[in-house]
């Protein structure tokens, strides 16, 4: 069993292959993470063309600078999601600020609220995609099909206690979506960012 300090083998090998300039590695990386990157970018921007641009930018940055990812700092999936989020928020702020400068409706506070809401939604999407399949299945039954824990247990073929546990854990994970600060960072006074 791998220790918490050891990065996943695939992530280490991918970073090494990208550092050597293996085009096939970029193709594998794209096949594995393009839908994640595009989906997160789209969730923040609400724009297909913008999400396409962010997706290209994320993969280009990793191709041109594979050393930016340090496998010791965590999974490649999380690193790519964080990069996508940062680039998408930068683009959202830039386009919305430009619209405000041209006399568009709203204020800078509205912009920050929009950025925060997009960040929370993107983080929630990422959490759901990354959570273990049993938790995701229980949440999908409860939320989308409006099943209670008893019906969820029956549908999943598990005990009622297990269904409650899965729902509780899934909801606990989702509740962290509102905390978009890096872990260990105290809340800042004033407007949400």
TrEMBL record:
Segment Disordered: which positions? Answer: 174-193
Keywords, A to Z, come to: Sigma factor, Transcription, Transcription regulation
- Glycoprotein as a keyword of this entry, yes or no, is no
Compositionally biased residues, Pro residues? 184-193
- The RNA polymerase sigma-70 region domain covers which part of the protein? 29-94
Domain (RNA polymerase sigma factor 70 region 4 type) spans: 127-173
Query: Its domain of life?
Result: Bacteria
So what family is this one in?
Belongs to the sigma-70 factor family. ECF subfamily.
Name of the molecule in the record: Sigma-70 family RNA polymerase sigma factor
Record organism: Streptomyces gottesmaniae
């Amino acid at each position: 069993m791998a220790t918490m300090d050891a990065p996943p083998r695939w992530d280490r090998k991918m970073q090494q292959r990208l550092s050597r300039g293996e085009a096939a590695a970029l193709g594998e990386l794209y096949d594995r993470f393009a839908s994640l990157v595009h989906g997160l970018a789209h969730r923040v921007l609400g724009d297909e063309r913008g999400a396409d641009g962010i997706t290209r930018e994320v993969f280009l940055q990793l191709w041109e600078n594979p050393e930016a990812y340090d496998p010791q700092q965590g999974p490649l999936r999380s690193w790519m999601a964080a990069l996508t989020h940062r680039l998408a928020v930068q683009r959202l702020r830039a386009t919305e600020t430009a619209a405000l400068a041209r006399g568009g409706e709203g204020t800078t506070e509205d912009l920050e609220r929009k950025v925060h809401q997009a960040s929370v939604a993107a983080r929630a999407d990422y959490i759901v995609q990354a959570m273990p399949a049993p938790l995701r299945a229980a949440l999908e039954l409860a939320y989308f099909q409006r099943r209670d824990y008893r019906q969820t247990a029956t549908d999943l073929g598990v005990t009622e206690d297990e269904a409650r546990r899965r729902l509780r854990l899934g909801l606990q994970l989702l509740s962290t979506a509102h905390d978009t600060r890096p872990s260990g960072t105290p809340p800042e006074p004033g407007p949400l960012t």
